[in-house]
Amino acid sequence: MKYLIVGLGNIGPDYQDTRHNIGFTILDALARVSNVVFEDKRYGFVTRIKLKGRTLVLLKPSTFMNLSGNAVRYWMKKEKIENENLLVVVDDIALPFGTLRLKPQGSDAGHNGLKSIQDLIGTEYPRLRFGIADNFSKGCQVEYVLGKFEEEERLLLPERIDKAIEMIRSFCLAGLQLTMTQFNNK
Asked: pTM to 2 decimals?
């Protein structure tokens, strides 16, 4: 069985370690603990992990956030992966910092990366939302999501990233419903 795990973010040093790039950060951590390295491929940086007879294709799109759908659609077709075996890891300002929420489908909730994916493959695909909170003044949302985590948040990030990795592995091994039951709202 094969899965496509997509971490959303923007490429380039200006965006590294920003709230909006938490998808990249989580996939980088998963690759590191799995002793694999990303390669620059068509539409993104890609690597593979073997997990108990399953293949996880990790993708960090190089298309910039608002064109992520192009990379996702390409790699789904190339790897012959159905929507239910796609998992998109994304930041979410509607959730408190560090909250992890696995959902089977949904709207783009104003997220340009999810909107791009939705425009090309629809809304029925699992996503793992990582809460970055909404601690910004009116009109400052862009600066906030493209900003770096606060010191207090940075101290808590490693544990939350580890939990996200645990959820990704569970999604691939135990399935969507069991993973949602075990991890959501905890």
From this structure: 0.94
Strands 2-7 and 86-92: parallel
20 is a catalytic site residue = yes
Segments forming the whole domain that contains residue 137: 2-183
Kind of pairing between the strands at 2-7 and 39-41: unpaired
- Write the burial class of residue 73 (CB in 10 Å: 0-12 exposed, 13-18 middle, 19+ buried): middle
Distance CA 151, CA 20 (A): 16
pLDDT of residue 145: 83
Selecting among 5, 6, 20, 23, the annotated active-site residue is 20
- In this prediction, residues 7-36 reach a mean pLDDT of 95
* CATH, residue 26: 3.40.50.1470
The domain total for the chain is 1
